[in-house]
Design brief:
alpha+beta, Uridine Diphospho-n-acetylenolpyruvylglucosamine Reductase, domain 2, six-stranded mixed beta sheet, three-stranded antiparallel beta sheet, 21 helices, binds protoporphyrin IX containing FE
């Protein structure tokens, strides 16, 4: 991160967070009073001047390094306190079970995800009550389960082939931008269905870009209902996108032809009381899927590429794997073939370990809970605390991951299996437990379809320096362009 220019912006963010948090704490003060009969101590606290020192370290050295320092000094559970706001970090799998597995009555996203409501709509997710949300969570898992994902691989492969057919014999591209565009095409085709892809693609592309671009800008995240231009643009794009989707949903309902896609599965989903989702809910669910899945997958495709193109050993291993698979299956790409791309799978997983798009997952504790560290210390964490699980740091703990700074996909192979040896919550790029990402299977499938095609058809070289992370983005992405040269080159089967 460019520390000098970024410090001012981070300071502004910190200030905005403090103001927002103070406002929310003030509003919710009655519910955050701690009452406990436990005799366990609370976690060590960083407060007063030390908080300013921590904030300074965060601004100048970054999140990972700051957490390393706090972890070394205070152990795996500690609270950073400022202006009455208490942020408790849980470092490592030993203390993370409640964070991921606790019920929503005990620990939940609270109002942390409020900024998503104007984007995805008040009819879904955090705009609704817990029972409706639980049912909708079940719908996500159902429509994204591997058997349904498998049926989308044909259209997805077609999109990928068509996209790269437009590249010339050789050239130079910004891989990040290419993947952004490709993933929106894949999402349009595989999530929403053929109507968008065939008739309304450019309208959809523009509106979705407007919705996310304005909805995810930092000021809107902290003050989602402020009277800003960005909020107005976000709301206008949301309304127009809704109208577009609503035409599709209505035309689906009025014909007897049943499509086999995610949209159709959502239309057919039933709540526990047997009722179907309303049109607005179906639309909200579609936008949620696009919102949660498109950008994360394109970023991860880019990081995977940046690592493969700077690590000759891993690149050779994935190319050899493709060649071997081609000798068995020719050009066929289906779920079974993709499942056999283990080396490519580990390369993507390793890119995600080093660059999780959500570097810190956050919850609100509604009831006190206790944790026991690896060293045997026990703490009680009071309700009202905001709880952070720092995925970025947890996936870099040297006791779990050997040489964590090294890109080493072999660490996930059967001989080492570092993520499982370390315990259940050692690898949380896709979260875990109750809120585990339902799109994990789809994410791997789409990234593998893209990268297997590139490895089989092109020779690629990274021309720009290895990208830094852009910490200014809510979903952290590679900073700037990722410039790559390509030359068509058909891979032979081994
Ligand atoms: C590399 C790609 C991806 C990564 C790293 C990723 C990561 C995550 C994480 C960390 C969460 C949970 C956040 C939390 O616990 O607070 C999440 C939730 C979610 N993801 Fe993904 N995701 C990816 C791709 C996808 C895809 C492709 C889809 C679907 C199209 C998807 C749909 C969702 C949904 C719907 C949720 C919310 C689930 C709920 O709480 O009801 N994700 N994702």
């Amino acid at each position: 991160m460019d520390m000098t220019t970024s410090a001012t912006i981070w300071f502004a963010i910190a200030l905005a967070s403090v103001i927002t948090v103070i406002t929310k704490v003030a509003i919710g003060r009655r519910t955050t009073t701690v009452a406990s009969d436990s005799h366990l101590p609370h976690p060590p606290v960083v407060n007063g001047v030390s908080t300013i020192v921590v904030l300074y370290a965060f601004l100048t050295k970054g999140l990972r390094s700051t957490l390393r320092g706090l972890h070394a000094k205070l152990g795996s559970v500690f609270t950073v306190s400022f202006f009455g706001f208490k942020l408790t970090f849980l470092v490592g799998p030993e203390v993370s079970a409640h964070f991921y597995q606790g019920s929503d009555l005990e620990i939940s996203h609270g109002n942390i995800l409020e900024f998503t409501v104007p984007i995805i709509g008040k009819e879904v997710g955090y705009g609704t009550d817990a029972a409706t949300r639980n049912d909708q969570h079940r719908f996500f898992h159902d429509v994204l389960k591997p058997s349904k994902v498998a049926s989308r691989i044909g259209p997805m492969t077609e999109e990928v082939q068509d996209y790269f057919a437009k590249w010339g014999e050789e050239g130079v591209v910004d891989l990040k931008q290419e993947f952004e565009q490709l993933l929106i095409l894949i999402s349009g085709r595989c999530l929403i269905g053929k109507e968008v892809r065939q008739k309304m693609y450019s309208e959809f592309f523009t509106l979705f870009g407007e919705l996310i671009g304005n909805g995810m800008c930092l000021i809107n995240v902290f003050l989602p209902y402020a009277p800003t231009l960005a909020c107005r643009r976000r709301d206008m794009a949301r309304a127009n996108l809704s109208e577009l989707f609503s035409k599709i949903v209505r035309s689906r309902k009025s014909t007897s032809v049943v499509e086999k896609d995610v949209l159709q599965s959502l239309i057919d989903s039933k709540y526990r009381d047997g009722k179907s989702m309303t049109e607005a809910q179906v639309i909200g669910m579609m936008i949620s899927l696009l919102f949660a899945g498109k950008h994360t997958s394109s970023i991860t495709s880019t990081w995977t590429g940046a690592h493969l193109l700077t690590d000759a050993r891993s690149l050779k291993a994935v190319v050899d794997e493709q060649s071997e698979i081609m000798s068995k299956y020719g050009d066929l790409i289906d779920y079974n073939v993709l499942q056999q791309m283990n080396i490519l799978h580990f390369c993507i997983k390793e890119a995600l370990r080093m660059h999780p798009p959500s570097p810190v997952l956050v919850r609100k504790a509604h009831k006190n809970f206790s944790v026991r560290t690896k060293e045997g210390s026990e703490y009680e964490i009071p309700r009202g605390h905001t709880i952070a699980s720092p995925t970025l740091y947890n996936s870099n703990i040297p006791d779990i991951y050997r040489d964590p700074k090294m890109y080493d996909p072999d660490r996930f192979g059967p001989a080492r299996a570092e993520d499982t040896v370390g315990g259940k919550f050692s690898y949380t790029a896709f979260s875990g437990g109750r809120h585990a990402c339902p799109g994990e299977a789809l994410a791997y499938v789409q990234i593998k379809v893209i990268w297997s095609h590139l490895l089989r058809n092109f020779e690629l070289k990274l021309l720009s320096p290895f990208p830094e992370s852009d910490w200014w983005k809510i979903i952290v992405e590679p900073k700037g362009k990722v410039v790559v040269s390509y030359k068509r080159q058909q891979l032979c089967s081994s």
